[in-house]
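User: Run a structure prediction on this.
Assistant: Running it now.
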Amino acid sequence: MQTLTGHTSPETAYVVADYPYGFGLRCSILYWVESNAKGHRLWSQTSNPKKGGAWNKPKCSTYADIGAAMYLDDEGHVQWEGLTFSASAAEIASFFERFPGAVTDVVQALALRKAHTLWARMHGYGPYWTVGGAPLSYSPSERESDSADLAKLMAIVPGAWAFIEKLEAKYEGKAQVIAV
């Protein structure tokens, strides 16, 4: 895998010069990642060999609100990965490991937020759900999985342990119940 960086507009796009166009024709295709206030998304634009190589209308993916990285997979094909607020701890850790150049302050903040959620759940702090007044059960396998995910996040985020220590002082046994 090779991470592709600096491709942020049609002018700086990653170019694949020999790309299939329909059945039997070949064209060029441009790829770039756009970042704006809404998030990040992948754009692509092909040339039209039937019209002398004029550029077709560009196409875009949906937004990933936290971060994105474009890369070449093992077969040399352009791929992209986006990170959203709903990403799991494993997805966040994988993003950190695979695309260190794409890790921004916002991505680190998401990792800390996820660590906070896992820590609070493991220690009985923060929001938890009840059904008929009884808390939902938290199985040993869920605790083990949360513990492993928390350890991954703690290992990759600078200053994460200091953040968790502040949480312990802040909560002091408080819990918020969300009844169903």
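Residues 175-180 have pLDDT under 50 and may be disordered.
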